[in-house]
């Protein structure tokens, strides 16, 4: 495949690929309003670009995006942008509307899907992927204001709506079902529609896919998924960390050659692919219409943080990621944090969110710590975690401070106290700041675990109108807003 040759450049020419992308993006957007305001026509390279263009959050671009949604042309990107991905995962209820241009759709999102298959087939040449159907789980969309042919919705719905009609011959469910907004109705219809099909591969968010597969099992009366779909061979997953779900998938699909491939695709773009089945880190995709920059997390939120291009990153350091794309996002703080495991090629793991961490007492606990700690406690006790969230208890009646974890188990530990001790001990091993604050219980007491009732998190998402699609529960928070809402529902 010609694409295989192009992908090889990722392993040797990372910096060159990224410089080419920046040059292309700046040149293409020079005549937009944003390009003129930031003198794109004078930009000769990365240093010029970093000097001319400020770092942006959604708030800085929001007014321009709203004008684009009302039909104005040539604002952040040339022409009129018709599609807007309604971004989930925000801790407040206000949605973000991420522009998805035609170029972004083709050169970022669809290219990511194509490369996902290319890398998978490179690793498994004897794959029978195309002998059957792909079960692709998507969200829904709705009209954007009153603009003709303009829509907002989950990115997955935008991708399904615009997909090459030929792809519909190899995917399930039918488009009408895939785009339903009521997740419970959709889940049931998907299960009925796919039950008798030859499904060979799955794509979607692990939590929602598990919910659909559970319904498939109920309808089929079978014990394992391969009894329903004997040729199932791979799950392309992304959106949330797979660690809490892996055990449940392994129990559901027991065939020894079942494969799992992680992807890093978000409303803002498609960024990474697991190119080596033996390595959990992902390859950063460098020749899409995405230019990357990074802020060290220990400087994030300060007045003048260091910002480095890809060729300035170091392995083992936690960074907030910035992107500039052909959808009109410029030096945009995406909200995810990553750590590079290698710089030749550039490979990384997602460590969390810039907002989703607990640092109430200087402990700097991140989602990556939480996932690894929970995985260890589960492994030692045979427990299985389905969903969780955590927040600090700043001071109780006895003047004690601690972290409170609300956990919904699909398999509860026999001894919750032992689970809690193992979890706390592992967090101290993983995070020296947490360990220091836990020293002799002086600053931070032993963590507390509250067991959530069945379906609590789904009920909360449903109440928020966020059931299904790419919506997810914020894992860690410095504030108690979310956990207090959930605890109140848990008491009922």
Describe this protein's structure.
- With 492 residues, the protein is α/β, with parallel strands linked by helices.
- It contains 17 helices and 21 strands.
- A twelve-stranded mixed beta sheet has the order 6-3-7-8-9-10-11-16-15-14-12-13, sandwiched between helices. Strands 2-1-5-4 form a four-stranded mixed beta sheet. A three-stranded mixed beta sheet has the order 19-20-21, sandwiched between helices.
- Strand 10 and strand 11 (282-284) form a beta hairpin.
- The radius of gyration is 23 Å and the shape is globular.
The coarse overall form would be globular
How would you classify the helix and strand content by structural class?
alpha/beta
What is the straight-line distance between the termini?
Answer: 57 Å
Question: How would a textbook summarize the main sheet?
Answer: 12 strands, mixed
Radius of gyration: 23 Å
Please report the number of helical segments. Answer: 17
Estimate what percentage of residues fall within beta strands: 15-25%
Helix content: 25-40%
Low-confidence runs (pLDDT<50, min 5 residues)?
89-93
Mean pLDDT, rounded to whole units?
90
* Total strand segments: 21
């Amino acid at each position: 495949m010609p694409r295989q040759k192009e992908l090889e450049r990722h392993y040797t020419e990372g910096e060159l690929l990224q410089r080419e992308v920046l040059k292309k993006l700046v040149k293409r957007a020079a005549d937009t309003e944003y390009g003129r305001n930031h003198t794109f026509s004078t930009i000769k390279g990365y240093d010029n670009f970093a000097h001319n263009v400020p770092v942006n959050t959604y708030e800085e671009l929001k007014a321009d995006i709203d004008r684009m949604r009302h039909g104005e042309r040539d604002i952040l990107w040339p022409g009129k942008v018709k599609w807007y991905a309604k971004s989930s995962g925000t801790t407040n209820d206000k949605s973000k509307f991420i522009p998805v241009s035609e170029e972004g759709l083709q050169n970022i999102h669809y290219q990511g899907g194509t490369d996902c298959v290319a890398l998978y087939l490179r690793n498994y040449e004897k794959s029978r992927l195309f002998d059957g159907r792909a079960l692709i789980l998507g969200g829904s969309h709705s009209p954007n204001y009153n603009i003709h042919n303009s829509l907002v919705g989950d990115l997955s719905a935008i991708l399904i709506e615009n997909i090459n009609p030929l792809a519909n011959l190899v995917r399930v469910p039918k488009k009408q079902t895939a785009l339903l907004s009521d997740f419970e109705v959709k889940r049931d219809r998907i299960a009925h529609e796919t039950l008798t099909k030859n499904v060979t591969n799955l794509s979607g968010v692990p939590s929602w896919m598990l919910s659909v597969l559970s319904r498939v099992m109920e309808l089929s009366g079978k014990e394992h998924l391969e009894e329903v779909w004997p040729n199932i061979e791979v799950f392309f997953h992304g959106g949330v960390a797979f660690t809490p779900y892996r055990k449940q998938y392994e129990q559901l699909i027991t065939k020894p050659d079942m494969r799992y491939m992680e992807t890093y695709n978000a409303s803002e773009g498609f960024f990474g692919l697991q190119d080596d089945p033996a390595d959990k880190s992902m390859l950063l995709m460098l020749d899409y219409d995405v230019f990357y920059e990074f802020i060290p997390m220990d400087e994030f939120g300060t007045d003048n943080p260091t910002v480095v291009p890809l060729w300035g990153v170091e392995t083992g350091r936690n960074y907030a990621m910035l992107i500039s794309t052909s959808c009109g996002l410029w030096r945009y703080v995406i909200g995810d944090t990553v750590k590079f495991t290698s710089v030749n090629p550039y490979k990384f793991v997602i460590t969390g969110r810039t907002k989703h961490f607990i640092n109430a007492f200087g402990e700097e606990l991140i989602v990556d710590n939480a996932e690894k700690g929970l995985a260890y406690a589960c492994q030692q006790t045979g427990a299985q975690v389905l969903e969780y969230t955590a927040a600090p208890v700043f001071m109780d009646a006895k003047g004690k401070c601690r972290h409170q974890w609300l956990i919904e188990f699909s398999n509860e530990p026999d001894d919750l106290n032992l689970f809690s001790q193992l979890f706390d001990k592992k967090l101290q091993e993983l995070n020296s700041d947490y360990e220091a604050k836990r020293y002799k219980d002086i600053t931070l007491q032993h963590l507390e675990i509250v067991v959530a009732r069945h379906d609590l998190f789904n009920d909360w998402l449903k109440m928020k109108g966020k059931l299904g699609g790419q919506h997810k529960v914020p894992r860690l928070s410095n504030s108690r807003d979310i956990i207090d809402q959930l605890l109140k529902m848990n008491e009922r």
